[in-house]
Amino acid sequence: MGEFALIAQYFKRPVQRAVLGVGDDCALLAPRPGMQLAISTDMLVQGRHFFADVDPRTLGHKALAVNLSDLAATGAQPLAFSLALALPSVDAPWLQGFSEGMFALADAHGCELVGGDTTQGPLNICITVFGEVPAGQALLRSGAQPGDDIYVSGHLGDARLALEALLGHIYLPPAALAAARQRLESPSPRVALGTALRGIASSALDLSDGLVGDLGHILQASAVGAELQADEVIARMAATAGGPGVALSLPRDLQLQCCLAGGDDYELCFTAAAHQRDAVQQASRAAQTPVHCVGRITAEPGLRVVDAQGQAMAQRWASFDHFSA
Amino acid sequence: MGEFALIAQYFKRPVQRAVLGVGDDCALLAPRPGMQLAISTDMLVQGRHFFADVDPRTLGHKALAVNLSDLAATGAQPLAFSLALALPSVDAPWLQGFSEGMFALADAHGCELVGGDTTQGPLNICITVFGEVPAGQALLRSGAQPGDDIYVSGHLGDARLALEALLGHIYLPPAALAAARQRLESPSPRVALGTALRGIASSALDLSDGLVGDLGHILQASAVGAELQADEVIARMAATAGGPGVALSLPRDLQLQCCLAGGDDYELCFTAAAHQRDAVQQASRAAQTPVHCVGRITAEPGLRVVDAQGQAMAQRWASFDHFSA
C-alpha cells in the first residue's frame, strides 16, 4: 500500500466544520468572529511515551488525548487536529486500531482531522490540535494570586502506579493493574471542565510531568509560591481511595511519589480566588468532573509540600524531564 | 541541560503578532476578520528526508521551508509555526545551528515560533505552519479547467541531481554538485509568488515528490487530464540551463528522470486560463520568481508526456512514495 492509499483508507474523512480537510497542500479553518485559536503540539515516541506492545487503539486514543488535555487547560473548545505519523512499515491491523481509537475520541469531542503527513521511519506520532476560545478568556499559567486555592481534577498518581508495575518495580494484583493501566493508557482530557472554568480559574495547566513540577510552571509564570497538602493529594489517588480502581494499601512513599511526581495524569491543576469556591464546585458539577482543593498560593516564592500537621516535608520531588540523566 | 532549559535557550523568543507564544499549554493566534487560517504539517526523518551528516543550519532551514512551501501553494501569507522535535541527545552545537537556520528563514517570512514539544528519541522534526488567506481566495488543487496553461516556477530537477550524486550513482564536478546540493538542502519557498497568484491561478500545489506525480494530484482533484511538454520541463533544469548552477551536458534520460520525477523541488506548479497569461507574468515579476509554461490541461483524463514533436513518450515516471517498495 502506498502513502496516498494509506491516507485515503485510514485517515481521510469528510470535514464538517473546516473549510478544507485532508488532501490539499493546506487545511483551511474559518475561526468564528471574536474567537482566538488555541494551538498545541505533542510528539509521542515509542519506548519513551508508550511501550512497543501497546494496543494501537489505546495509543490512538492517548495520542489525541494528551493534545486535547492542553486545549482543556486553556479553556478552549476542540475544533480540529493534524496528524504526522512516521511508521516503520505499513501494518494494516495496527493502522486500523490506531485510527479507530483516535477517531472515537475525536468524535466524542467534535474534533476533526484536517491534515497531516505520513512517512517511513521509527514510530513517531505528532498531533497538533486546534481549539477556539473567546478572545481574552483563555486560561493561562500566569494568573495565580496569593491566597488563591489550588485545585486538581479527578485522580492523580494511578498512571505512574501502573508504569511502576509494568516496569516490574512493584507488584499489583491483576484487577488493580488493569484499572491503573486504563488510567495510564486512556486518559480522559478534561475539556468540559476547562471550558466551564473560563472566568473562574485564575490560572490552569494540565498535569503531564507530575504535580510538583507542573505546579512549578504556574508558580514561575505567576511569580508566586504555594503550599501543597500532601495528604489531600494522596487522597486523590484512585487506587488508594478505591475510586475507579481497586482500593489498595500502598506504602506512603510510593503514594507520595506517584501523586506528587507521577506524570501522565492528564488532569487539570488550576487556581481560583476564595470567593470563587461555589463557582468552582458548580463548574465541577456541570462538567461532571470532580475537583479537590489541595493547597494554596502564597506570596512567598517556592513550593512547600506539607503533611497533615502543616509541617514541611524534606523530600524533593523530581518531575519528569526528557533530557535529564 | 533539561527540557525546559533547552527550550528557553534555543527556541523561546518573544512573539510579535501572536497573542501567546512558547511557554503555556497552548499558543493563541487571533486571526484577522475575513481571513481563513491555512495549516500544514510536515515530518522530516533522518535517512529519509536528510542525511545524518547534513549541516544542522541547512536542516533548520529546510524543515521550515518545506512547510512554508505548502502555504505558498495555497496562496497564504505565513504567520506562525510550531515545532516538535525528537532528539537522540542534547547536542548544543547542533541545536544552535538548527535553530539559527530555522529562525533566519522564519524571520525572512515574518513567521514566528509559537509553541511545540521536545522529547528524546530518534531524530524527528515535525513542523506545523499557520498562514492566513482571505476567505474564498485560497489556491486549491481542484480548480484546473480544460484549456488552462500549466506553469512551474523556478528550476526543476536539480535537487534530485544532487541526491543522485551524493548517493554515488552519478559523478558531478565539485562546483556543479555544490550548486545542485544548495537546491536540495536549501529550497526557497515561493511565498511571494503564491500570494501574487491569488485570483489568477485556477489550481496550484508545491512540487515535493516530482512533477508527474504531483501534477497527478491536480488532475485527480480537478477531474481533468494534461499534456506535459518534456523539453519545456527539461529546459527548466538549472544545471542544464546554466542557471544558478553550472551548465552541464547530461544524458537525456537522467534529465527526464530528475525533472519529471525528481522530488524535493519545492517549486510551485499551477494552472491558469489562457486569458490570464499577462496576469501570470505580472505576478511572476512582482514576486521576482520566474515561471514557465510547460503544458496544458485537457478534458481527456490522464497525463500525456510529449516530446518536442508532440509524440507521447512511452516511459512511465514514478514519483516518490514513502511506502512503495
UniProtKB/TrEMBL annotation, chains A, B:
GO terms for molecular function: ATP binding; magnesium ion binding; thiamine-phosphate kinase activity. Substrate binds at H49, D264, F320. GO terms for biological process: thiamine biosynthetic process; thiamine diphosphate biosynthetic process. It catalyses: thiamine phosphate + ATP = thiamine diphosphate + ADP. Mg(2+) 2 binds at D42, D70. Residues 184-306 form the PurM-like C-terminal domain. Keywords: ATP-binding, Kinase, Magnesium, Metal-binding, Nucleotide-binding, Thiamine biosynthesis, Transferase. Pathway: Cofactor biosynthesis; thiamine diphosphate biosynthesis; thiamine diphosphate from thiamine phosphate: step 1/1. Mg(2+) 4 binds at D25, S40, D70. InterPro entries: PurM-like_C_dom, PurM-like_C_sf, PurM-like_N, PurM-like_N_sf, ThiL-like. Belongs to the thiamine-monophosphate kinase family. Reaction mechanism of ThiL seems to utilize a direct, inline transfer of the gamma-phosphate of ATP to TMP rather than a phosphorylated enzyme intermediate. This is Thiamine-monophosphate kinase. It comes from Comamonas piscis. The gene is thiL.
